[in-house]
Fold these 3 entries.
Entry 1:
Amino acid sequence: MNSRNYGETLSYWYLRLNGFFPLPNFVVHQGNRITRTADCDFLAIRFPHVFEEIGGQGEDWDSEFFETIGIPYDQNIIALIVEVKTGYERNPNSLVISLSGSFSKERLSYGIKRFGFWSPEKVDEIVNNHLEKSPSFHDNNSGIYVAKLLISTYYPKSSKMPPCHFLGLDYVDHFIRERMNYYRDRKQPDRYFFPDDLIQYIIWRG
């Protein structure tokens, strides 16, 4: 965790605190359809019946955001391909170019195949027919949702932006602080069990 920037660390804990299992820095290797090796900030998966006594009950989830983007928590598996970007306010074109690569159909196919939901051929079909042009896809047969999520300090209003859901980093920071404060009597004395300095500081500071 300490090797990441603050945006990636906050994003990691937002996903964790919403019941996801995040896989950080997923390497997309150069190959037949990938021209150069790259990485995805997070692949994250969530199962429908997540539960913990402390911080893992129904009212703890950010269900409002996910329902707003059309991905309900109940009875669904949710898989996210997440990119985290900070500091692009002065150069929005660079962000658009970066995301066009991160959410290219080749990298999407590579990442979704790692989840193992469908055959490689089915994944390519889903990406080509749905996810390349839409921020998310719902498989009616399995109930699985797959979505592209940008967590960033900035969202450029550009016609060239690849379609993706957006979550502001300020919002992510607020959500984490609210959750930690709500369970402060348990989280504060246990803060050193959390593996990075930033989240320990947030728990201590409130």
Entry 2:
Amino acid sequence: MSRSQSQPTRESIVAALTAPGGPFEIVRDEIGGVPMRLYRNAPRSMRDVFLATRDFGDRPFLVYEDERLSFADVHDRVAWATALLTDLGVAKGDRVAIGMRNFPEWVIAFWACQCIGAVAVTLNAWWTGEELVYAFTDSGARVAIIDEERAQRLAKYRDRIPLVHALVVRTQVALPDTISWEDALRRHAGAAAPPTVEIAPEDHSTIMYTSGTTGLPKG
């Protein structure tokens, strides 16, 4: 018996997985007038991807130094964060800038945006104050979730940034014109789940910027 007869090929496996009724069935459709091949059973949004992980419960999700957050912990904090952002007037399609070190709050802020249909504008933590100001202005972000280092870097540019609210994580000092993320989150700790929001597969999710090595970063 030849090898081709005894063992399935990559092509035959892909064909079986993507065939009608298969777990990764592919269909053809149009998005914005452009023909595309799509997974029939794919999650409709990043919100759906996140909500599907709730069943992992007490399994570890985030590890940062001595901190351990389970999936249940993160889901709780994301629910509180969605309540906080909603209370600040953030709605589907609004831009929320996120810029900080590799803190757990980055992940929580990102998923909170996805769960309410807001567009997460991810900022390069290495950027200068001028580059951060450009990204805020270019993206149209009205709310920012940043750490103390980014807040200090932006302080002298505050009158040039079209922000309505600046939430600062892990800050050790009271910063003018900002809101403590931790304090605000605790005030919304009663939220049990993100609000119901209809998010379509083609709705915007994230704006990421290039490094800007030959000019200003491009979103």
Entry 3:
Amino acid sequence: MTAPVPCSTIDMTGLGELIAELTARGYRVIGPTRSEGAIGYAEISEVGELPIGWTDRQDAGTYRLVRRDDEAVFGYVVGPQSWKKYLHPPRLRLWHAERDGDGFRIVPEPEPAPKLAFLGVRSCELHAIEIHDQVFLGQAHCDHDYAARREQVFVVAVNCVETGGTCFCVSMDTGPRARAGFDLAVTELMDGASHAFLVEVGSDLGAQVLAEITHRPATAEDHRAAREALARAAGRMGRRLDTRDIKPLLQSNPEHPRWNEVASRCLACANCTMVCPTCFCTSVEDTSNLSGERAERWRRWDSCFTLDHSYIHGGSVRQSAKSRYRQWMTHKLAHWIDQFGRSGCVGCGRCITWCPVGIDITEEVAAISSTSRLEGQPT
């Protein structure tokens, strides 16, 4: 790994000091924790709450935690949750209305955004946040709630030296090393009894925080160890996705027989969209109390796998599982490029791991590509 700026090294004590320093600056530190048989994200106050000595084993429709033979702090990949839930909450009240004489008075939600420090953000997740920045901040209409939350976030990225069975970030050019979008980036280095963290500064605020914790200048050996660890991770991806001409491939095959095959297995449960760090579909609900004195408008996550998502007067546009799965995958990997100039997939593999029947997006693309080429169809 080459460092664009001088790097430093901290130990476990320094990692604890980092959490304490961020807390002292008014941040709620959100980090990985072991809960209910998986790695999730929750508020933490000390190093001991991190999943030290644990790793995950992932494959299509399979996830389990197992003990490691060392005390690695970040020796896992990603769990079912993403940082999306803190920046784009699953349920958000937009406003409420109260009866005022013969009418109603609309009361906006001025609740201040919390100061959050994300500890342990993987490179694929940084790219997912970048995608949401483009969707919510870079279009004609800004999502003001997202903007307020995003402005308050301090990001501590973690470079991946482990890979999961469903990871394919190398295919999407989104990892395993974090290149931008962080205040500090950490690479965990373990060599026998030696346990340290190489720290790269990504912002002025990150430099200020690092200055307050115990650290030393990184050595050439630290950089070499980090380069080798990241190279090993890049070479051990659990999955691969061929992205060459993927947009015309999917857009020119709406009636490919593979869509029927995958539909016969798909439960339309929406797991893939709920765990995806880039999906952002929502619906709006209006509620009122029994007295009619108060009404509320809520925004909640939705999914293109539900019948109601495409409902218009007369019924749903996408009534079959085939049409809904085709919409999701084609939008994610093809139409998204038309909309935003980039893919909507970051290669985290969550949709593969958390699909109850093990449907694999990389396998589906490969099947369509292989058959299309055999039949001489455009790719």
